[in-house]
Design a protein that fits this description.
The chain is mainly alpha-helical. Helix content is 52%, strand content 9%.
């Protein structure tokens, strides 16, 4: 079972990795309802909404990383 602390650390590491590419997802964070279930197995990281420019920057960073 994963802990809330582990999920928070994961979200912060993702935030930092995205920031290294100039990408900010303002609503990135731990999905709290995933901890509210009776049998929480894996917490979810909510990426949230982003504008078109952010989506394009994320796509470019992923493509660059895959090359």
């Amino acid at each position: 079972m994963h802990s809330p602390t582990e999920a928070d650390v994961c979200a912060e590491e993702l935030r930092a990795a995205l920031a290294a590419h100039g990408i900010t997802l303002p609503s990135l964070g731990v999905d709290l309802p995933s901890f509210a279930s009776r049998c929480p197995v894996r917490p979810l990281i909510a990426l949230g909404n982003c504008n078109l420019l952010t989506a394009q920057a994320l796509t470019a960073a992923l493509r660059k990383g895959a090359a």
